[in-house]
Amino acid sequence: xxxxxxxxxxxxxYVGVPPQERENPQEVVVDLTLSxxxxxxxxxxxxxxxxxxxxxVEKVEHAISERPFQLLExxxxxxxxxxxxxxxxxxxxxxxxxxxxxxxxRIGYVEVELTRTND
Length: 119
Known about the structure:
The structure is a single chain. The chain has helices at about 20-25, 40-45, 55-65, 70-85, and strands at about 1-15, 25-35, 90-100, 110-115. With about 120 residues, it is an alpha+beta fold. It has a single domain (about 1-115), classed as GTP Cyclohydrolase I, domain 2 (2-Layer Sandwich), CATH 3.30.1130.10. The protein has a 4-stranded antiparallel beta sheet with strand order 1-2-3-4, covered by helices on one side. Helix 3 (about 55-65) packs across helix 4 (about 70-85). It is elongated and about 50 Å long. The relative contact order is 0.23. The model has no long low-confidence stretch (mean pLDDT about 95).
């Protein structure tokens, strides 16, 4: 299966269990690995034969801004499901990192990675 990697999408999200994390948006960073058949795109050199990177980034930004989340796991799952609405994408691997304020002096970041398939 062919893959497209999109790394380092920076977004603002309302995510966290402690109230101070949900009061203001915080930066999250998203990495994607999308598995799909890229043979036609490679042969035709036409964007219509693949996923449009800009539209993928916009879809991620929209999914993250749709509503607040307590858990990074729930946010990551929501992004996966949003991406899989494009049936050309067979597997979506999504990693989302956040830099939690309450732990900022003790850790670099927290990251959740989920893989979901389009059945």
